[in-house]
Amino acid sequence: MKIVVLAGGLSPERNVSLSSGCKVCAALRERGHETALIDMYLGTGEEPAALFAAPIPEELTRIGRQAPDLESVKASRTEGGASQFGPGVLDLCGMADVVFLGLHGACGEDGRVQAALDLLGIPYTGAGHLGSAIAMDKDLTKRVAAPLGVRTPKWELVKYTEEEIPALAERLGVTVMVHCTNPPGEMSQLLELLRPGDVMTHMYMNQGSAIVESGAVKDCVLRARERGVVFEAADARAHFGLDVAQTAIGAGFWPDILASDLTKLSMHLRPTAFNMAMQLSKYKALGIPFAALIQLCTRAPAAHMGMLDTIGSLTAGHSADVAVFRPLHRENVFGDRPYGNEDQQRMLGEAVYEPVLTLKDGDMVYRSVTF
Question: Where are the chain's structural domains?
Answer without folding.
Answer: 2-126, 162-367
